[in-house]
């Protein structure tokens, strides 16, 4: 199934490579994959993740992804 994944700031280096879909953030994943399993598959260090959004809503790691889902992953942000 296809989902959209966007990794922001320092996590962007783990973003999926384009697969000829025309969109670098679109990727094919297995049915039943959870948010946490997706992050592991992309080699994103879980301790570097502060917030995950699934279709614009805060997501927990155990949530199961569905076709067409949009996942946004953010690291902690510092500044002032």
In short:
The chain has 80 residues and is mainly beta.
Q: What percentage of residues falls in helices of 4 or more residues? A: under 10%
Tell me the Rg in angstroms. 12 Å
Tell the overall outline. globular
Query: What sequence of helices (H) and strands (E) makes up the elements?
Result: EEHEEE
Descriptive report:
By secondary structure, the chain is mostly beta strands. The chain is about 10% helix and about 25% strand. The relative contact order is 0.30. The termini are far apart. The model has no long low-confidence stretch (mean pLDDT about 90). The chain is globular, with a radius of gyration of 12 Å. It contains 1 helix and 5 strands. A 5-stranded mixed β-sheet has the order 2-1-5-3-4, with no helix packed on it.
Short key terms for the protein model shown above:
mainly beta, 1 helix, 25% strand, 80 residues, 5-stranded mixed β-sheet, single chain
Give the arrangement of secondary structure elements.
Blueprint: E1 2-7, E2 26-28, H1 35-41, E3 51-54, E4 57-58, E5 70-74
Parallel strand pairs: 1-5
Antiparallel strand pairs: 1-2, 3-4, 3-5
């Amino acid at each position: 199934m296809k989902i959209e994944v966007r990794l922001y700031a320092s996590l962007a280096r783990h973003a999926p490579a384009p697969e000829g879909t025309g969109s670098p953030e679109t990727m094919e994943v297995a049915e039943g994959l959870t948010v946490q399993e997706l992050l592991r598959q992309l080699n994103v260090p879980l301790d570097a993740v502060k917030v995950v959004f699934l279709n614009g809503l805060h997501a927990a790691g155990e949530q199961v992804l569905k076709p067409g889902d949009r996942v946004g992953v953010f690291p902690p942000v510092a500044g002032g």
